C-alpha cells in the first residue's frame, strides 16, 4: 500500500473533484464515532445484565432469548437508550457532513442508531435499510405501521428492577394484541413502512441522476461482512462496471480491494478518526 499521507491526499482529492458522493456506512463507522458495543461502555451500562445473563457485548445481548416480555423490554429499553437517545451529535459524523455537505451526496446505511439524522444530514439523502432503534413494530408484522418508542424507553429506564420492567409498561400491538419488536431487520417479519419505501425511492432517484461521464466517489465506512450484500458488494460492482467510479474504503479489518478494482480503490485500515481529522483540515 502507498504511504498513508499519499493515500489520504489521493482520497480527499477524489472527493473534492467528485460530481457525486455515495456514502455507505456500517457498524464500524458508529463504533469509530464512539458508539462501541463492547468493552468499558458495555460494562458500565449493562453491569446488571452481565451479572444476570452472562451477556458479553451489546450486539450479542440483543439476540439473548429473554424468557418474558418484561425482561426483553428491560433489555431493549436499556440498549435503545444507550445507543440512540442518550448519544447526541458525534464528532465523526459531523466531520463527515462537513466533508460532503456542499456536494451531491447520498447516504446508504445499515446503522440503526439514527446518527445521520441526529447530526443534521438531510432527510431526503438518507436510506437506513435495516430499521431504527427508535421505532417499534408488530412482532408478526400484522400491519405495516411503525411506532415511536421514546416514551416507553424513558419510562422503562426509570422503572427497571432486577433487569425487568413492570408488566403494564410492556407494549402490545394495537391491531392484533400480540407482542411488539424493535424495528430492526432480523427476520422476514421486518416492517418496511411508507417512510422506508420513500427512502428507497430517493436512493433509486439519486443513482438514476448519475450519468456515465459523471465522477462518482463511493465512500465506504466501516462496512464488514455482516450484511455485505447491502453496501459492500454493490459498491464493488459499481466500481467495476464504471470507469468514472472510485471506491474509498475505510475498514480496520477488511480494507483490501478485490483484485479487479485494485487501481480504482483507495484502502485504509488506519483509525477512522485519524483519517477524518486529516481530511477535515483539507476540505
Ligand atoms: Zn399485530
TrEMBL record:
<feature type="binding site">
    <location>
        <position position="142"/>
    </location>
    <ligand>
        <name>Zn(2+)</name>
    </ligand>
</feature>
<dbReference type="InterPro" id="IPR026591">
    <property type="entry name" value="Sirtuin_cat_small_dom_sf"/>
</dbReference>
<keyword id="KW-0808">Transferase</keyword>
<feature type="binding site">
    <location>
        <position position="138"/>
    </location>
    <ligand>
        <name>Zn(2+)</name>
    </ligand>
</feature>
<feature type="binding site">
    <location>
        <position position="173"/>
    </location>
    <ligand>
        <name>Zn(2+)</name>
    </ligand>
</feature>
<dbReference type="GO" id="GO:0046872">
    <property type="term" value="F:metal ion binding"/>
</dbReference>
<feature type="domain" description="Deacetylase sirtuin-type">
    <location>
        <begin position="1"/>
        <end position="283"/>
    </location>
</feature>
<dbReference type="InterPro" id="IPR026590">
    <property type="entry name" value="Ssirtuin_cat_dom"/>
</dbReference>
<dbReference type="GO" id="GO:0016740">
    <property type="term" value="F:transferase activity"/>
</dbReference>
<keyword id="KW-0520">NAD</keyword>
<keyword id="KW-0479">Metal-binding</keyword>
<keyword id="KW-0862">Zinc</keyword>
<dbReference type="InterPro" id="IPR029035">
    <property type="entry name" value="DHS-like_NAD/FAD-binding_dom"/>
</dbReference>
<protein>
    <submittedName>
        <fullName>NAD-dependent protein deacetylase, SIR2 family</fullName>
    </submittedName>
</protein>
<feature type="binding site">
    <location>
        <position position="176"/>
    </location>
    <ligand>
        <name>Zn(2+)</name>
    </ligand>
</feature>
